[in-house]
Amino acid sequence: MVAIAIFSADPAMRRSLEQLLREDSSFSIVGVVDDPAAISLLIDQNHVNVVLADVPLRERLADWRLRHNQTAFVIFVDGADEEDSLDALYAGARAILPRTAKPDEIVTAIKAVTNGLAVLPSELLPMLLSGASLVGELLDDNDADRARLTPRELEVLAAMADGVSNKAIARRLGISFHTASFTSPPFSPSSMRTVGPKRWLGLHNSVS
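Given the sequence above, the corresponding structure tokens read:
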């Protein structure tokens, strides 16, 4: 039986999720809370396989994931906001669903994450695949630079290759948007190949 905890500040969402889970005998509800701080307490006191969390803050999700890495987090996001979905993914979500997800989609996501799978919105896949392949190609073309690139610089490269906004890049790196300065021109693979990713970052970006 899959032990599940539910978090949502929306009473209607809490009722809907609770009713859905009670209709499936393979699920057991450990707790239903409206306070995100209560989720960690529930996990500490019980064996929780999955948490259904309705639009949690990125920092809160990252904290849950750090403290409870054996628990799978299924996150609901508003609409089709790709930046919010990416934030949830990088903060540790195992599954990302819109708040309008149908009951069968929610059940399928729960069963998927309990079997070690991930569930992502289809519109995220091209972004993730293109970003990963582009960064990998750039690094393969610049062996000397590859050894000197830091994990932080690789994150910047991946974010810029995704084509996301400066604000999203700052959030992905875990820094305040007000303390970050990204002053590069539009991302240009050819320009990076010419000078190498390390030098390209130094010439075009300042991250504090």
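Confidence is low (pLDDT under 50) at residues 179-195, 197-201. Try to locate this feature in the token string yourself.
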